[in-house]
Structures are given as C-alpha cells and as structure tokens.
TrEMBL record:
PANTHER family: MATERNAL PROTEIN EXUPERANTIA. InterPro entries: Exu, Exu_RNase_H-like, RNaseH-like_sf, RNaseH_sf. This is Exuperantia RNAse H-like domain-containing protein. It comes from Pectinophora gossypiella. It comes from the Eukaryota. One of its GO terms (biological process) is bicoid mRNA localization.
C-alpha cells in the first residue's frame, strides 16, 4: 500500500553542497511548506528562480520574498527536515510513501538524501519513503507524440488547463507534479479531479507511480556515484588551476 505525495524543494544552487531553502509537499487533503534559513546565500540563478534572497537586518540574516518584499518565517534545515518527516509519517498510514517530483536532471532526490544523511535522518526517511517518481520521465514517455516540451508550464497548460502556472514556489511545483501524474494515470477514463477535492489517489494513479518509481536505494547508489565523480573532478583542479586563473 502506497501513499502518493507531490514533493519539491528550492535550494541555494544546483550543486550537491548547496542547501535547502524551501521544502514542500502536496496531497489533495493537505499541504506542507516550510522555508529554511541557509547558512550561505542563494546564487544569482536560484534567486531569480525562486524569487527569494537572503538579507541582513541589523545582526540577523533573514529570507525575503523579492516579489512581496516580505520577510519569510524560516527554520533551521535539521528542524524543517524533522518536521517534514513527521508530516510524511502521518501521511503514510500503514504503507509507504512515494514522492512525486518533476525534474529532468533528477538531482533533487540526491540533494535531499545528502541533507538527510548530514543530519542522521536517513534511516528514518527510508522507513517512511519507498521511492521517488519523476513525473518528467513519465510525461516524456506518455506525451512524446503530442508535446515537444514536458516542462511544468507546458504540461500544466496542456493537461491541466492552467494557462499560467507559478513555478517559483516549491509548493506550486509539488502540486503540479502530483496533478500531472494523476492526469496521466487516469488518461481519458474520467476528468481530472472527478474524485472531488480531497479525494485520495486512485488505484490507477498509485500503480502508475509505483511502476515509474525509483527506490530509495537506487537514488542512494546514484548519490554515491555522483560523489565519486565529484572527487575525480577535484583531482584535476591542480592540473587545470593555472588555466582557470589565466582565463579570468
């Protein structure tokens, strides 16, 4: 028995050492969203992507929404991750959770697992979550004949009739990823959302998510491979350092 949860997170960058600055999850019954105060600043790309930035007010560092100019309520990374696991534990019931996300590079699961490992929360996570389903890969397979791009915005417009989808928030992306899998699983049998607000995932949706899920141990293997690759890359730094300096 699996519980399906749409999930996404914003980070300070796209490297393995970057920190989480928002983690969010969605089910038709309830949502979870928490901003996290990172130790470092967001890189320029992340600031534009997520519309948040770190500001210093007096002696304190805060996270600010660049659209509304409001200071966001934040927690530490370890506190937010623990709270997220508490929330998932309630959602899983007697079964396990499958996290649904939408990303071409499949980097988010490895970044989440790295953060959980850092705070010794990995074993608890493994007892709750069975795997990750990438709605990008699912949509790329199911919609290859009808759409050229399977980005969230395009799929939201084509599949969900959402002309304008805000993708700067992790919660918006988590919601969209869940609904895309819901739509693709239902196919043409019935209209999306026909189960009503708060309806649980259908058997078709659970089965589709299960078939496309990558188990947690597979993502951990991918994380280990990525770490080895990064170590190998770092060994080349002394060789190419003079060239990098001269290029500047």
């Amino acid at each position: 028995k699996y519980a399906l949860v749409g999930w996404d997170m914003d980070t300070t960058g796209r490297r393995l050492i970057d920190e989480i600055c928002q983690i969010a999850a969605y089910t038709p019954k309830q949502t979870y969203s928490q901003y996290i105060m990172p130790y470092g600043d967001l890189n320029p790309g992340a600031r534009r992507r997520h519309n948040v930035r770190v500001v210093t007010v007096g002696r304190y560092r805060m996270l600010k929404d660049t659209n509304t100019h409001k200071i966001l309520k934040t927690k530490s990374e370890v506190s937010a991750l623990s709270e997220f696991l508490d929330w998932l534990e309630k959602e899983k019931g007697d079964g396990s959770v499958i996290l649904i996300y939408h990303e071409p590079r499949r980097l988010s699961p490895t970044m989440l697992l790295e953060a959980l490992t850092r705070y010794k929360l990995l074993e608890r996570f493994k007892s709750i979550v069975a795997g990750f389903t990438d709605s990008y890969a699912l949509a790329a397979d199911k919609c290859k004949a009808t759409v050229k791009s399977v980005s969230l915005r395009v799929l939201a417009r084509v599949l969900l009739d959402a002309d304008s989808l805000a993708v700067d928030s992790a919660l918006d992306r988590a919601t969209a990823a869940y609904r895309i899998v819901e739509h693709l699983a239902q196919g043409e049998q019935q209209e999306v959302g026909a189960g009503g607000e708060g309806a649980a995932a259908s058997k078709d949706m659970v089965e589709t998510a299960r078939q496309w899920a990558r188990p947690v141990h597979t993502e951990l293997d991918a994380l280990a491979t990525l770490k080895k690759l990064l170590e190998r890359q770092n060994t080349f730094r002394p060789v190419f350092a003079p060239l990098l300096r001269s290029a500047r």
